[in-house]
Specification:
CATH superfamily of the largest domain: Trypsin-like serine proteases
Structural class: alpha+beta
CATH topology of the largest domain: Thrombin, subunit H
CATH class of the largest domain: Mainly Beta
Strand order of the largest sheet: 1-2-3-6-5-4
CATH architecture of the largest domain: Beta Barrel
Order of helices and strands: HEEEEEEHEEEEEEH
Shape: globular
Radius of gyration: 19 Å
Largest sheet: 6 strands, antiparallel, barrel
Number of strands: 12
Length: 238
Amino acid sequence: MTASRRQSSRGGRRAALYRGNDFVRLFRRARRGVVFIRTLKENEPDEPEPFFPFFLPGEPEPKEVIVGIGTGIVLSKDGLVLTSEHVVNRPRKILVKLNKGTVCEGKVLWADPEQDIALLRIDKRAAASLSPLPLGSSRKSKVGEIVLSIGNPLGLENSITSGIISGKHRSVAMQDRRLSDIIQTDCAINPGSSGGPLINARGQVIGMNAFMAKNKNGLGFALGIDGIKERIRRYFPG
């Protein structure tokens, strides 16, 4: 191997190591601004409980059953949390677990079912220990840019995946709605990750994880943060 090739190889390894260490630093900062959501409802007689084997802390009350899990993005220290509307759609109770393990109840402040966006309010005293995530710009993001996703897939808290932006400005049908301004990514986005942040290399939220295409590996989708900011401006001027 020539000297120039050896130097190039060492440089490539250093670059890969730098990116890995960068991910560690990004995650350590970002996890303080991510919460995990569990929704409960009244347990009907003979109704089987949904199977979320990894969501261990805090058992529900005997007459309640877990109906969904998701993730939330902390927007402010007074307890404003951004998440997906389908995560918190008409449950009896919403429980929010903070990064240090505290569990508090959340209330839906506002929701947009058409674009799958919701704002929760949690207790201000509990939220004081959190670090709101900085919001970036989905319009300024580039196809090919490296991104990170933090979520609660299948109840596995603080799960991080990485990938790239595969496409922008998609329009995607989800159940009975059509979502616009969608970022396509190859980050793994599984049940429980909905509502979590899609973060760029500067630690800024550029999207909110929405869903992964069924039976299509490597096709994840997130709502662009610019469109979200416009819709929540009344409650969060930014």
